[in-house]
Amino acid sequence: MKAKIIAVANHKGGVGKTASVASIGAILASRGKKVLLVDLDTQANLTRHFMENIPPRIIYHAIREQSNLPIYPIRTNLDIVPSGLDMAGIDLELQMMFNRERVLKVLLDPYNSIYDYIILDCPPALGLVTINALTAATHLIVPMKADLMSNYGLSMMDQFCVKMQVLNPGIHIDYIFFNIYEKGQTITDAIEADVREKYGDRVLSTVVRKNNDVSKAAFDFTDIVSFNPDANGAKDFQSLVTELESKIQLKHYIFI
Fold first, then answer.
1. DSSP secondary structure string, 61-117?
2. Distance of alpha carbon 38 from alpha carbon 70, whole angstroms
3. Could you give the C-alpha distances from 167 to 11, 50, 135, 163, 170, in angstroms and in order?
4. What is the pLDDT of residues 163-175, one digit of tens each?
5. How many angstroms separate the CA atoms of 213 and 234, rounded?
6. Are strands 72-75 and 78-81 parallel, antiparallel or unpaired?
7. Closest C-alpha among 136, 114, 140, 42 to residue 83
């Protein structure tokens, strides 16, 4: 069975995207799934979640040389392709490459039968790196805060997917979830209601509450579940992954 390639993206930064990728990947691995995390962001925050130092070979080198991915083990069932500052100029280099929108897809193809999940941490921009991610992806997840700017970012992702159809027919926002969530604020409740009405069951019922331990975990080079399994954030991500797995499996069986 081929890996489920999940792009996690939002045009709006600051929505907890990277911490979500780290948490979701770690939980899936702890449940016996073979998981590869791919850091596509110049900031390398996902890499720093698990590695104290940026290694000499990162995703940049694989893209530039169109060579094997530099894969580093994190723990049982969990591997990572790291990123770093060199990725800052990769969009310019991609522009000069043949079949530039499909470079990442070609790089991932040899690993399709090795992993159950390949999770792509996309940069908060709709450039060639994100285009490559959405061309390769089988699923798209958009984390968001229940605020106005995140809502705009969600709408932009929706519009971007329409333009992506020529490269990956059928790509669309599969799942949305509310992150860094604070219920009870007027604007929060209004935006949540609006998004749930517009996107229906694509919006996960699980929300991830605001929790400082999610940020603290990165300082220990780990994920929230490993850092403090009793924290609200850890419990919420466990529930989120359970719901996510259920929906992905259901979608798989529907389309078999």
1. HHHHHT-----EEEETTEEEE---GGGGGHHHHHHTSTTGGGHHHHHHGGGTTT-SE
2. 10
3. 19, 32, 6, 8, 9
4. 999 999 989 999 9
5. 9
6. antiparallel
7. 42
Residue with tokens 């392709």: 81
Q: What is the largest CA-CA distance in the chain?
A: 51
pLDDT of residue 89: 86
Highest mean pLDDT range out of 13-22, 143-152, 236-245?
A: 236-245
Question: Pick from 109, 144, 139: which is nearest to 124 by CA?
Answer: 144
Can you read off the two tokens belonging to residue 49? 């979640």
- Cα 120–chain centre separation: 5
Give me the pLDDT at residue 253, please: 39
Q: What is the pLDDT of residue 256?
A: 37
Q: Which of 13, 56, 63 is nearest to 38 (CA)?
A: 63
Q: Please tell me the predicted confidence (pLDDT) of residue 1.
A: 67
CA distance 126 to 128: 7
What was the pLDDT predicted at 250? 63
Token pair for residue 111? 């690993």
Single-letter amino acid, residue 20: S
